[in-house]
Design a protein that fits this description.
Elements: E1 4-10, H1 25-36, E2 39-48, E3 57-61, E4 64-71, H2 73-92, H3 103-120, E5 129-133, H4 140-146, E6 153-156, H5 164-167, H6 173-180, E7 185-188, H7 191-203, E8 214-217, E9 220-226, H8 233-240, H9 243-256, E10 260-265, H10 274-287, E11 295-300, H11 309-329, E12 337-340, H12 346-355, E13 358-361, H13 370-377, E14 386-390, E15 403-405, H14 410-422, H15 425-441, H16 444-455, H17 465-470
Parallel strand pairs: 1-2, 1-5, 2-4, 5-6, 6-7, 7-9, 10-11, 10-13, 11-12, 13-14, 14-15
Antiparallel strand pairs: 3-4, 8-9
Helix pairs in contact: 2-3, 3-4, 9-12, 10-11, 10-14
This protein binds ligand L263DTV3 and uridine-5'-diphosphate.
The ligand O=P(O)(O)OC[C@H]1O[C@H](O[C@H]2O[C@H](CO)[C@@H](O)[C@H](O)[C@H]2O)[C@H](O)[C@@H](O)[C@@H]1O is lined by residues 10, 24-26, 29, 134, 158-159, 229, 304-305, 366-370.
Length: 471
Amino acid sequence: MSRLIVISNRVSVPNAAGAAGAQGGLAVALNSALREHRGIWFGWSGQETAEFTGHLDMQRNDGVTTATIDLEPQDIEEYYNGYANRTLWPLFHYRIDLTEYDRNFGEGYERVNERFADSVLPLIEPEDLVWVHDYHLLPLGSILRGKGVKNRMGLFLHTPWPPTRLLASLPFHERLVASMLEYDVLGFQTTEWLESFLHYVQKEMGLKVNLDNSIDYKGRRVIARAFPIGIDYAEFSEAAASSEASEAHHRLKSSVRGRKILIGVDRLDYSKGLGERFESFSRFLADHPDMAGKAVLLQIAPPSRGDVASYQQIREDLERKTGHINGAHAEVDFVPIRYVNRGYPRAQLAGFYRAAEVGLVTPLRDGMNLVAKEYVAAQDPEDPGVLILSQFAGAALQLKDALLVNPHSIEHVAETIKRAIDMPLAERKRRHARLLASIRDEDVIHWREQFVKALAGKDREGANASHEATA
Ligand SMILES: O=P(O)(O)OC[C@H]1O[C@H](O[C@H]2O[C@H](CO)[C@@H](O)[C@H](O)[C@H]2O)[C@H](O)[C@@H](O)[C@@H]1O
Ligand SMILES: O=c1ccn([C@@H]2O[C@H](COP(=O)(O)OP(=O)(O)O)[C@@H](O)[C@H]2O)c(=O)[nH]1
């Protein structure tokens, strides 16, 4: 079995103090993948240094070897807060209104990708498979090729891929996409984003896409496919059965004294549709006076990317909105929205999910959304809760037995909350069983195996398997 070199923006050392608190989906998925494969996870430590030295901090924890570098404040500002999270992230989430184009961001992005390449280069051995993650590192493969790396290299994009006309607004978009074609495998969360990408290379670059969705470019064949990411079902089920989970379940249940619980768990990000969600819950309360004082929305929202102005703005907007809605619907002994700006370990989250009759996952745009899958996996199969899921989350292409909603339609989501609360047990069980089967079968291990197989060039005959599974 070939060794894996996994490269992502941030490396989350497993079981490090605080790591379980507010890990994103990528970190959760990769820790589990790396335990299975010997190999190295390389990336930014999350720390800053006055002057970049390229020093590699190598560690081995809980079966995972990590190699990290520190970055200079200017790197972090221009690459992470800048090009990654003020330019690409909003653009890839269809928020052209929030997308900033600044030459310094572009230069910082190139510089840090160069620094990543120079630092990881000595770790790469001839037979290694190189697996790069996400929008922070789109040109890394091309830079590594320029430094003589001949290994098989793949990129998995965790976010959506935007429509061609949106992407065309990005200065130097052609160069960025051309650099991606230096990878051997390009992976997307869903067929929707895959098709957007293929549309771009045909319309903007005049390239031909083969029947198996491969692209011949500069004498090499690039495979483009959908690989929907899953959760670590076995690990999550174990966490859900832990005493930590049952304590969390009990703590939440006893605090609401018989009221229905709706739960949302999201990084505090404008893409997650939290404002629209709160308004939908408020509309539900206004439309159903008989529900007054009988339903609580618990929203867990750990702060994210707090140095970026649009994230500071969404935080302020949500504080105002929560205050307004609670002011309108609260009673002397009751507050309808419990809005919590901190992260919880996933074992506790599992207990909270299980306590909630409704899971509200309503992003305006989301690459996948692992919370939707965790909510289902945490339910009691004999008395499961109902998942309300945005049609604009990548997860909606797989989780068709959820109640799918348009998160922009406050009325529709409000009505769907009522439908979820009133849903008979037999229908809840039927929907839950189907959702659970797909979450269990298409878990993170399946995702990793499919991607690594394609990366190793061993799956030519099954090129469209995942694609069709999500179509
Ligand atoms: O590292 P941060 O800036 O704090 O952000 C956390 C992660 O957010 C994004 O997650 C995406 O990946 C998930 C797993 O594939 C997916 O379910 C979700 O829809 C995506 O938004 C980001 O893409 C990651 O790089 C970050 O680590
Ligand atoms: O307090 C929290 C909030 C979230 N998460 C985890 O963070 C991940 C979020 O992944 P998702 O794909 O839903 O969104 P992302 O944050 O990656 O955009 C999930 O595994 C959550 O369990 C967590 O561990 N603690």
